[in-house]
Every structure is written in C-alpha cells, then in structure tokens.
Amino acid sequence: MRRKEQYKGFSLAEVLIAVGTLAIGMIFIGGTFLTGVYFSTLSTERTIAASVADEAFAKIRLYGIDPADSSLTTDQLVRFETLNSSIEDDEFAYPSTKMAIDKHYFWSALCRSVRSNSTNHLVQVTVFISRKIGSATTYPGGTTRPVPVEVGVSASGAGNQNQLTITTTDEQSYINDGCTIVDNETGLLYRVIKRDADAPNVITLDKVWSGQTTDSVWVIPPPTGGGKYPCIAVYQKLISF
Q1: Got the DSSP string for 195-223?
Q2: Which of 49, 223, 232, 47 is nearest to 135 (CA)?
Q3: What pairing do the DSSP bridges indicate for beta strands 180-183 and 214-219?
Q4: Residue 162 and residue 174 in one domain
Q5: Residue 183 and residue 76: Cα distance in Å, rounded?
Q6: Is the distance from CB of 108 to CB of 92 less than 8 angstroms?
C-alpha cells in the first residue's frame, strides 16, 4: 500500500486572521502618516511666519510712526495703518518680490505706547501672521486680507477667572478654539483653549485673565461665511521710534 502523503498549508481561518492583522496595521500606519503631514505643514508655516514677522518689523521701522500721535496711547491698541496711512496694501503681503496672485501670507500690526516719560518713545508692536486661501476670499469688515478686529468681552464671575464672555452675538464666530487674542488695554496675549459648545459666547483661556471686567480683545477672524482660522502666529516686540 502506498503511504498517504501529507500536505501542509494555511487554513482559511489563518488567512483571514493574517489579512485582518495586516489591515489594522495599515490603518494605524495611515493615521500616523496623516499626522506626520499635518505637523510637517504646521512646522513649515511656523518657519515662514518667522520670516514674515522679521520683514514686518523691518517695514514698521522703515515706514515709522509718530510717537506723539494722539491715537497712540498706553491704554488701547491701534492698527499700524491708522498711524501711518502712507503704507500701501501690497506692503502687507509676503513674499514681497512676487506677483500679488502668488502672495498667500499677510501681516498686520497693532501698536500701543509704553512710554514712561516724555522722552521714552517705546511702542509695543504686536504682529499677526496669517494665510489667505483664495483670491476672492474676504473677511469681516469687507477687507481682502486678514486683519485683526476688536471684539467686546466681559470677565466671568468668581471661580472662572480664565473665562470670558463675548458680549456681541454676531462676533461669537470670530473667536474659536486655538485662536490667539490680545487684550486691548494691556496688550497681553492669550490662547483660547476652547469655546463652550453649550454657551458659544463663553471662551476658556490658557491663563488667568488680567484685564478689566468689561473690556475688548483683538483677534484675526475667519473668512466671511466661515472657514479655517487664518492666523498662523503672533509676535510682539518693543520698538523705539
């Protein structure tokens, strides 16, 4: 009698288990890849933002402002273009050497005097670096580039010192998770941790609020009609004029 030959192989169950394990692994790898792309893009934009900020501060020094301008006070912020109307809109775009259609990054600045005496001409300059997607995109106020807007806020009650309430309903959508806001009176920067889902007019900050009970903040709002938060980074520097 012939000996019965043995055949070795994989069962259907073993194949299904192997395929399932491989599929789960690919899902995790795919998720890691997307996360890597996100952080790589974020890092690239932060690097570009630093270059844009350097150019912005250089242009602010070049064009200059009058330290004696009545609009420039110690207790409120004012837009740079209000203090110097001679600067052209194209100067706020980056890079400076390309055509307008190729410029996707813009800067804007707020100024506040910090003079301690009549001879101290120090000015606190806050520069916002933002991206613009789409040539036809507009922003609240009818501007064609991202610029900071003033939003009224009030401090929350005891026990909620790191929370603010947005006082105007139409301005609630201007401040969202991850936004950087600037106190109009002190110029202090705050990061918005979240906007309450149940009370959309309440925002939580990354630190205790040091402003007045009734105050206002400046923020770069999203495009008109909604969209991604355009502000990439915010820089501050003291400049003597």
Answers
A1: E-SSSTTEEEESS---S-SEEEEEE-PPP
A2: 223
A3: antiparallel
A4: yes
A5: 9
A6: yes
Going residue by residue through the chain (241 aa), what tens digit of pLDDT does each one get? 455 555 566 677 777 787 888 887 777 776 665 666 665 666 788 888 999 999 999 999 999 998 888 899 999 999 999 999 999 888 999 877 655 555 689 999 999 998 766 677 889 999 999 998 777 888 998 888 999 999 999 987 655 688 999 999 999 999 999 999 999 999 999 999 999 888 999 999 999 998 888 999 999 999 998 888 899 999 999 998 8
79 and 140 belong to one structural domain: yes
Q: Positive or negative CA dihedral for 241, 110, 97, 47?
A: positive
Residues 187 and 207 in one domain: yes
Tokens of 54: 């350097």
* Residue 3 covered by a domain: no
Token output for 65: 């402002």
Rounded CA gap, 169 and 197, in Å?
14
pTM of the entire structure? Answer: 0.81
As a residue count, the chain comes to 241
**Using an 8 Å Cβ cutoff, are 64 and 241 in contact?**
yes
The boundaries of the domain holding residue 192 are 149-219
Residue 125's φ and ψ, nearest 5 degrees, are -110, 125
3-state SS assignment for residue 133: coil
